[in-house]
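Q: For a teaching session next week I want to show students how multiple molecules come together into a single three-dimensional assembly. I've collected the sequence lines for a complex. Could you give me the predicted structure tokens for the whole thing so I can convert them for display?
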Amino acid sequence: MITRLPMENFAAHDIRSYSKMSARELARSYIVDGLFVPGRIELRHWETDRTVVGGASPLGRALVLEAPARLKADHFNDRRELGVTNIGGPGAVTVDGRRFKLNKLDCLYVGRGAKKVVFSSIRKSTPAKYYLLSYPAHTRFPNRTLLAWGRDRIGCARDRESSFPQQGDSSRRDQELPARHGLHDYSPGKSVEHDASPYPCVPIGGLPVL
Amino acid sequence: MPPHTHACRSEVYLYFDLNKGGSVTHYMGPGERVRKLKLANQQAVLSPPWSIHCGSGSTHYTFIWGMGGENQEFSDMDPVDPKVVR
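A: Of course. Below is the structure for the complete assembly, covering every listed component.
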């Protein structure tokens, strides 16, 4: 018998029920907690846009991403794309045998159709923590990384167009380079939320990235 | 800010790298009925299409913004005048 990865569901509440919620109900309905449990993969499903949000926190043992029962699929990525961002120590994600090393703030796009996604940490003492976000996908795009420049360089990210490093798919590197990646500049007095003006948006696979 | 909604997209925010004891207040809802959510380090918040979404921190924080929906060009946003937010 196959044990499926559990995945709690968050209902898609409408604006009328929002108004009637207590503070506790509001928090339970919209705050997602407990995503990063050492040694485990945690997944949550939100009915709105069929969102899956999760965390993978491998320690000594690598963690395999399975398809929760709700997805009615043999593999997690059968009909989905997946964005992975490492917010912890150095690690590696292996997709169908291909290994992508991810340091802190590095991202990996995993396209529809991937069969086996495995998360691991390089060092148990500084484990990786992978934030996961996934949506249904109707097109398969290549797996690829989106590498951060380093935490001290975030503020300069906006100026660094056209020379974005990546792993994999080197033959397609030029045409797939984004003009702008997902790290916003910030400075004292400037909002760190995204501003409401239109952005040129570069999709990584099917996921828009700012 | 300024706040806005977008009926064609929902979003998810993960707040992380907060200092110990730090928190982020996330604002949600329609502009005229905004409510607050207090978030701790490494918590995510779901932002429905009908909701504004912005935050303020008691300390420095980092967030990951992700979205699902039908529009990638960001011409679908409805701004909410901060004067009407309450």
